Amino acid sequence: MLKDAVTIDFFKEVVNMEDGRYIVFYEFPSGKSSIYSPNKEETNAIMQPERSGN
Amino acid sequence: MSELRWHPFLEEWVITATHRQDRTFLPPADYCPLCATKEGGFPTEVPKEEYDIVVFENKFPSLQKNPPPPEVLGTKISPVSLAQGICEVVVYSSDHNSSMVKMPIKKIENLIQVWQDRYIELGSKDFVKYVYIFENKGEAVGVTLHHPHGQIYAFPFIPPILEKELSASHKYYQENKTCLFCDVIEEELQDTKRIVFEGEKFVAFVPFFARYPYEVYIAPKRHIASMEELTADDRSDLALVMKALLSKYDALFDLSFPYIMLVHQAPTDGESYPDYHMHFEFYPPHRTATKLKYLAGCEAGAGTYINDTLAEEKAAELRAIGPKCIEEIMSAV
């Protein structure tokens, strides 16, 4: 069984996309300047994905 | 069309995913789907102008959260099953021309944290029995997008190679009351001939039984079953050892060295795996600067690898080239 969550130092934003997929943005203190709200776990924003990958 | 088909001779699942035939294949850099979407530019898979690290569900997944029912009927010998799971893409950087080796140590540490988070999150889902983290780098191993990224497959079963490793680890523990990997690492550290780089907490080595000329394992010296047990200090040292290895790879033939990287760790099927030891494996396809090792008749058909080189000599090559200490790693690339 999985244990308690590891110690983390990132902000995470989960966005649901129009086609039903999700996208998770991870932002770190050492990364780029903040454009997300700290500890914002999930939004209901719908975004339009386009090009594919992989 | 997507389903699992049972291979009765090998007793393992084969994933059928015909929709993947249409996935994006080596697009021009100006139309990279993993770059950030810029104002006025074409919309990519990442609908933000900036990002550190981003993870999203693969548009052409081999396994799906809500898979369609199989379109074929299985047989008594070869049953079919739902191809249920999750396939994620992990984009390491918004810089199209970056790669893990070019990233600062701190950024590699961040990536390790993301892997930990995905392991915990995906592993907590009832239908996920195994979280498989990997990266294909370079066209030589079939990469279809050059933007730095890896993938995660959340499997509804434990994949066969892991089944075998888990079984071997358990059997060894039953017979010796020690961890198989801990003992292998101890042997390598004492022998030293196959060590490529040693950190405080992790060690990179060409295994005695290497199947590829430049195959390298990176393993924690202490017994850890999965990534969720990694501490901040572990992550720092792991990032350092990874950067050292990748810098050595690139220096070897003065090219951006292709490889398959993967993480082997404990399953997430609700069982306990105290005798398993997590580690990374790297399989580079190059056997010389201009020649590749192919998995041909003996490997693909019989499952027996032929290595045309000596692990001890390849480890010595890697030891001798590229960064050899922390200061050199920090200034590498």
Layout of helices and strands:
The complex is a heterodimer of chains A (54) and B (333).
Chain A: E1 11-17, E2 22-27, E3 42-47
Parallel strand pairs in A: 1-3
Antiparallel strand pairs in A: 1-2
Chain B: E1 2-7, E2 12-17, E3 53-57, E4 80-81, E5 86-91, H1 105-123, E6 130-137, E7 149-155, H2 160-176, H3 180-191, E8 195-198, E9 202-205, E10 216-220, H4 232-252, E11 259-264, E12 279-283, H5 297-302, H6 311-320, H7 326-330
Antiparallel strand pairs in B: 1-2, 1-4, 3-5, 5-7, 6-7, 6-11, 8-9, 9-10, 10-12, 11-12
Helix pairs in contact in B: 1-4
Protein architecture, described:
The complex is a heterodimer of chains A (54) and B (333). With 54 residues, chain A is an all-beta fold. Helices cover 0% and strands 35% of the residues of chain A. Chain A has no helices and 3 strands. Chain A has strands spanning 11-17, 22-27, 42-47. Chain A has a 3-stranded mixed sheet, with no helix packed on it. Residues 1-5 and 31-54 of chain A have low confidence and may be disordered. By secondary structure, chain B is of the alpha+beta class. Helices cover 27% and strands 19% of the residues of chain B. Chain B has a 9-stranded antiparallel sheet with strand order 3-5-7-6-11-12-10-9-8, with helices on both faces. In chain B, a hairpin with a 3-residue loop joins strand 8 and strand 9 (202-205). In chain B, helix 1 packs across helix 4. Chain A binds chain B through residues 1-3, 5-10, 12, 15, 17, 19, 21-28, 30-32, 35, 47-54, and chain B through 23-24, 27, 31, 33-34, 42-60, 89, 94, 106-107, 110, 113-114, 116-117, 120, 123-124, 144-145, 147, 149, 151, 228-232, 268, 270, 272. Strand 2 (22-27) of chain A pairs antiparallel with strand 3 (53-57) of chain B.
Structural class of chain B comes to alpha+beta
Give the low-pLDDT segments of chain A.
Answer: 1-5, 31-54
Largest sheet of chain B: 9 strands, antiparallel
Helix and strand sequence of chain B: EEEEEHEEHHEEEHEEHHH
What's the rounded overall pLDDT mean of chain A? Answer: 62
Could you tell me which chain pair has the largest interface and how many residues each side has?
A: A-B, 33 and 50 residues
Radius of gyration of chain A: 13 Å
The ordered H/E elements of chain A are EEE
Strand content of chain A is 35-45%
Number of strands of chain B: 12
| Main β-sheet description of chain A | 3 strands, mixed
Low-confidence stretches of chain B: none
Output the strand order for the largest sheet of chain A: 2-1-3
What is the rounded Rg of chain B?
20 Å
Task: Please list the strands of the largest sheet of chain B in the order they lie side by side.
Answer: 3-5-7-6-11-12-10-9-8
Task: Report how far apart the termini of chain A are.
Answer: 31 Å
Shape of chain A: elongated
